[in-house]
Amino acid sequence: MEDALHTLSPANASSPSSDYPLCPTAATLFFLPSIYTLLFITALPGNGLSLWVFLRCIPTISPTHVYLSHLSISNLLLSITTPFLAAYYALGQVWKLSGVPCQLVLHGITPVLHINIYISLMILTWVALSRFAALIKNTHASRPSAFTTLLPHCFFSRLTKVSFANAVCVTVWVVSVGGVVPVTVYYSVHEAMSGDHEEGGREEVCYSPAVELGGSVSGTLSVLVITIFFAVYLLVLLSYMMVLKHIRRSRRDAHITTSKSLLSRVLRNIVVIQVVLSVCLLPYHIFKPIFISLAHDQLQLAPSPGTDTYSGCHPLSIFVELKNCLFLLAALRASTDPVMYFILDRTFRHRTLKLLRCNKSIGEQRQMFWTTKESTNQKVEQLGEENVVTATAELSQTVL
């Protein structure tokens, strides 16, 4: 299924290759459904447990806890959609475009997918900024960081407040939902459904060029989204470089020994966020403009003899599959985020381990209880038998 932010020109319907179907390989028919099923099995309990720990097990909430709890909510929504994605890639070549399953994927699953991606992008950025603010506020080098001179001091103090984190998360949800939903609605109603016609008595299927390639309006906004992603990515990278520079200056001071743990934690957190953005989201956003360019060129040029079009397949079939695999890489972040929480937040790590140990100890206590009860019953039975034997012996002696 195409995200609503890819581009094609309005010549979509008149393209010579648009009448040819996509030809999925084993990567689409088996690999993607299997991994999305595995993602559902791992992401749903992992993020459910994480959200429970954030909301119920941590007495003192920090801004990082607020950000990560909202990220867990977004990941839970994503994990619920993964069975539908698995079914789409396995059966999309059979589903009719106007059928209920296809319409559910277009109108319901598509917005959730992209809301999750960009909520995750913005929340992880604010986590990195809040960690950097904590570094600036709690450690002091011989010369203050350049950020303290460029930005007002109240900005850094607000980054470390829970109320500010709540306001940021609400704003992120409003911006993401308000920005993604209108585009995906237009995509699913006008662009994807442009292929809803019958040719030679054959109705268009769900897994088709119209669905996977998108249209011009959603494509126009893709340029803005790609720009925002790289701006945010560079912002996190800049904060990482500033932390390294701040640590180098701070280690020259004799009194900084008390802050070494904070310095190492902040550096580790920003590195983890940078790795997540680089591994999960960066490949997809690098390939998006390449895919857009290929699709646009394909529409402008008539297919030449010997291409896949003349063999009965759309010439961009393999690129569509590559795009879907990179999108899967972005979605896999929902399964690995609970592991990231362990690394980012020490309180979350301790509380989760304590919760798991508590459940384990409860099971052990129950087992010990039933074992003790059984042994007690056995002792009672043995004592009863001994009493019977003693009473019989006394009675026999009395008779004698």
Automatic annotation (TrEMBL):
<dbReference type="InterPro" id="IPR000276">
    <property type="entry name" value="GPCR_Rhodpsn"/>
</dbReference>
<protein>
    <submittedName>
        <fullName>G protein-coupled receptor 82</fullName>
    </submittedName>
</protein>
<dbReference type="Pfam" id="PF00001">
    <property type="entry name" value="7tm_1"/>
</dbReference>
<feature type="transmembrane region" description="Helical">
    <location>
        <begin position="111"/>
        <end position="129"/>
    </location>
</feature>
<dbReference type="GO" id="GO:0004930">
    <property type="term" value="F:G protein-coupled receptor activity"/>
</dbReference>
<feature type="transmembrane region" description="Helical">
    <location>
        <begin position="221"/>
        <end position="245"/>
    </location>
</feature>
<dbReference type="InterPro" id="IPR042804">
    <property type="entry name" value="GPR82"/>
</dbReference>
<feature type="transmembrane region" description="Helical">
    <location>
        <begin position="35"/>
        <end position="55"/>
    </location>
</feature>
<keyword id="KW-0472">Membrane</keyword>
<feature type="domain" description="G-protein coupled receptors family 1 profile">
    <location>
        <begin position="46"/>
        <end position="341"/>
    </location>
</feature>
<feature type="transmembrane region" description="Helical">
    <location>
        <begin position="266"/>
        <end position="287"/>
    </location>
</feature>
<feature type="transmembrane region" description="Helical">
    <location>
        <begin position="164"/>
        <end position="187"/>
    </location>
</feature>
<keyword id="KW-1133">Transmembrane helix</keyword>
<feature type="transmembrane region" description="Helical">
    <location>
        <begin position="67"/>
        <end position="91"/>
    </location>
</feature>
<dbReference type="InterPro" id="IPR017452">
    <property type="entry name" value="GPCR_Rhodpsn_7TM"/>
</dbReference>
<keyword id="KW-0812">Transmembrane</keyword>
<dbReference type="GO" id="GO:0016020">
    <property type="term" value="C:membrane"/>
</dbReference>
